[in-house]
TrEMBL record:
<dbReference type="Pfam" id="PF13378">
    <property type="entry name" value="MR_MLE_C"/>
</dbReference>
<keyword id="KW-0460">Magnesium</keyword>
<dbReference type="Pfam" id="PF02746">
    <property type="entry name" value="MR_MLE_N"/>
</dbReference>
<dbReference type="GO" id="GO:0016836">
    <property type="term" value="F:hydro-lyase activity"/>
</dbReference>
<dbReference type="InterPro" id="IPR029017">
    <property type="entry name" value="Enolase-like_N"/>
</dbReference>
<protein>
    <submittedName>
        <fullName>Mandelate racemase/muconate lactonizing protein</fullName>
    </submittedName>
</protein>
<dbReference type="InterPro" id="IPR046945">
    <property type="entry name" value="RHMD-like"/>
</dbReference>
<feature type="domain" description="Mandelate racemase/muconate lactonizing enzyme C-terminal">
    <location>
        <begin position="147"/>
        <end position="245"/>
    </location>
</feature>
<dbReference type="InterPro" id="IPR013341">
    <property type="entry name" value="Mandelate_racemase_N_dom"/>
</dbReference>
<dbReference type="InterPro" id="IPR029065">
    <property type="entry name" value="Enolase_C-like"/>
</dbReference>
<dbReference type="InterPro" id="IPR036849">
    <property type="entry name" value="Enolase-like_C_sf"/>
</dbReference>
<keyword id="KW-0479">Metal-binding</keyword>
<dbReference type="GO" id="GO:0000287">
    <property type="term" value="F:magnesium ion binding"/>
</dbReference>
<dbReference type="GO" id="GO:0016052">
    <property type="term" value="P:carbohydrate catabolic process"/>
</dbReference>
<dbReference type="InterPro" id="IPR013342">
    <property type="entry name" value="Mandelate_racemase_C"/>
</dbReference>
Amino acid sequence: MKIERVEAIAVSIPLNKVFSGSSYRVTSRATVITRIHTSSGLVSEVYNGDPREHGPEIARMIEQDMAPLLVGESIYACERIWEKLFRLTIAAPDRPLVMNAIACVDTAVWDLVGKSLGINVCRLLGGYRQEIPIIAIAGYYLPGKTLSDLAAEMAWLKSVGMAGCKVKVGGVSPEEDAERVKYARQGGGDDFLIAVDANRGWSIQDATRFARLIEPYDIAWFEEPCHWHDDARGMAAVRRATSIPINAGQSEVSAAGVRRLLDAGAVDIINFDASEGGGITEWRRAAAACALVGVRMAHHEEPQIASHMLGAMPHGICVECFPDPDRDPIFPGMWVNPPAIKDGIMAIPQGPGFDIQLDWDMVKRYRVN
C-alpha cells in the first residue's frame, strides 16, 4: 500500500481564559492534523501536539519539504520513512520544529498501518493492556484563584472521572506552592494521585526545599524541577535529596535526549512527548531504553495517541488530559469519539489505527493555514 498524497492542517482555537504555569502563559489550544492518502483509499486522521504559533510552519514543512519524500513509499516502511525525514534535521535552522513535523507524519503512518490491519496501534506496539489510568493537567495559576478554589478544583476533577492531577508549581515561592499542594491533597482526598510540575521553574536549592516540604503529601512525582540550562545535573541532585520520584523528558526532542537524562541518573519517570520528538517510531526507542534501566514511562499530554503507546508497555503509568473545556476545546470537542472515562480509567480506543474521528466543521472554523 503506497502513499499518494499528504496534507497538513494547522488549527488554533483561542481560549476563554489565560492559563499560567511557572514560566509560560497559554492563550490558545493549537494542533496539526495530518492526512496521508494511500493507493488503496485509506486516509489517516490524526492530530498531534500543541505547537501554538508554529502550527502553520509545521504544516508547510509537511506538505512542501516532506511530502515529496513520502510519495510512493509503502506505509509499512516506518523506519525507512523516518530515516528519510530525519535527514532534514541535519541542516535545519530549527531542528525541534522539524522533529514536530516528523512526529505528525510518523503518527499518521502508524495510524495507516493499524487501519490496514484492522487493529489499534496499542496492539501493534505490544498490547499490554486495553485501558489505562488518566489524570488531569490542572491547578494552574489564575487571577483571584484561592487555596479553597484549588481544593474545590481537585474535587471536581475527581467527580468527572480523573484518577489524579498534575498541579502546576514553580511560579511562587517554595513555601507558597507547598501550601497550594496541601490544599490540593485535601481537595482530592487520600486516594487521588497528586503530582507537581514546575516546568523548569526553580534552582536546585529551591526545588529541594519545596520537595522536602511536600513529602508528607504522598506525591506521585515532581516534574521538571530545575532551570533548563543545567537541568540534568540539577534534577539528579534533587532526586538524591528527596523520596519523591523525578519526572522529565517532555522538553527533549529525541531519544538521544532521553538517554542524556538516563545517563545522568536524573529521573525515575520519563514523559517524552511523541508529538514533539519524532513520533511513535522515536518514542519506542526511548521507551526501550527506559525499560532496560527500570525507568517508568509517562507522556506529556495527547491522550489520543499516548493511551495507545503507554497501554502497549508494561512500564507505562498513566495518560494526561485537560478535562476543563476552557483549557482544551479539542478533548473532548473536535475529537468526536473520545473513549469512555470512569473511576480514573480511560478505555483505549478499539477501532483500527488510533481510531480518531474529527469534527470537520470545527476544523474548518479554526483552520489557520
